[in-house]
Structure formats: C-alpha cells, structure tokens
Amino acid sequence: MLRGDGRGAGREGFGTIGAGATAGFGAVLTAGRSYSVELKNATGDSTSPGTLTLFSGDDGCSGTSSMTVRDTADIDPETGAAAQRLSFTATEGRTFFRARLVNGSGLAIPFTFSWSETTTYSPAWSTNGSFDTFYSFLNTTGTALNGTLTLLDTAGAVLSTFNLSIPVGRTASTNTAGLGTTRNRTGTARFTHDGPPGAIVVEAAIANFSISPAYVQPVKFQAVREAR
C-alpha cells in the first residue's frame, strides 16, 4: 500500500499496476475537509488504470465502503476513459482513509495518482459593529456543484454553516447577516465542495455599507493543497 499525508496532499505520484492485480493507497485526512483522488493511465492511451473504490477510516480493511463519493471524471477538466477521479468530504472517525484500484485488464498499466485536498480557506471574517462578511462562489465547470461554507470562531468552534448548490457557470452568494451569524465576532472560514480541483473560485470581503464612503476589505479565500 502506498501511504500519504492528506495534509500535504496535492503532489503527484507514480506507479504500475500488474495485469489482474489490486493496488492499495492510503492517506491521513482531516474530518470536514473535501478531497479529490485521481488515478490516470500514464501511457497516454485511453485504457483505464482500473476500478477505483474509496474507504473511510472506519471501514478499515473490511473491503466494504461506507463512503459517499462523487464521480467527477466527466466534470471539467474531463479525464476521459484513461482515468478514475472521485471527490468526497472526509467524515468523523478514524483518520486513515484508503483507496483500492483493481486492474481487470490483461495488461500491466503504469499510472499517475494524486490525492488532493480541495478545501478552500479564508483567514478572516467579521461581524463587529456594523461590519459583515460577504461571499461569492463561482462554478467554473459545466456541471452543477454542491458545497458547504463553514464559519469558525477564533478558537476553532463552528458558528455558522451554509449548504449551497452552484449552477453551471454561475455564482452563489451569501453573507454573515443572511446566515444569522452572531454579532461582534471574528474568526476564520472554510469551504468544501464535491467538484474536482479548480472547480470553484471564491471571493470574500469584509464590508460596512452604513458609513460613507462604504468600507470594503477583500479577504483571501483560496485552496492551498490542490493538484490539477
């Protein structure tokens, strides 16, 4: 089994799976964060490296998967038949997640693999005084995607969550006032989604429109461990 650390995910690895063989991969992941796993034929032809199945930490070595995953091979950028790509959000429980690749063909297949964290992070939000924080999520793909915005206080406790569906090529927006986030608080934010790496572009700003001129401070909101 090839092991990795999901906290440093985003790097690409290489391997070869034998004819009729099974290969295993593993990574230590963090609950509540979203990930994408991709295995691709490295020869350049259209033969799939095999069938990919993911297992949560709590599945252990049972061989039965309890995970909810989304097949993103047909979402921009499409991988074609030469790759397997799945997205998911890690659940609470044991942190060592596994992937299994089964090569049902009669040929050995060299492949590349990546286990990327697609969570995006923002270092600040505020509801102090008359300030609120505003968010816009752009779906860059040709498929509707789903995501969750989570606002945390300075101690890391969850204050607000917002589940949203983002239409094809369009944006979805929200703000701390609309979410009913507690006033006079600050913290950090994260956004998870079920698309492939690079699928969502996020903009954020802390603003006060009750003063003249209005105060608007853009805030970073970006992925830090994606592989595309």
Describe the structure in your own words.
- With 228 residues, the chain is an all-beta fold.
- The chain folds into two domains: 2-117, Sandwich (Jelly Rolls); 120-223, Hypothetical Protein Tm1070, Chain: A, CATH 2.60.290.
- Helix content is 2%, strand content 51%.
- It has one helix at 176-179; strands at 2-5, 12-17, 22-28, 34-41, 51-55, 70-71, 83-89, 96-102, 109-117, 120-126, 132-139, 145-153, 158-166, 171-175, 186-193, 200-208, 215-219, 222-223.
- The protein has a five-stranded antiparallel sheet with strand order 2-9-4-7-6, with no helix packed on it. It has a five-stranded antiparallel sheet with strand order 13-12-15-10-18, with no helix packed on it. The protein has a four-stranded mixed sheet with strand order 1-3-8-5, with no helix packed on it.
- It is elongated and about 70 Å long.
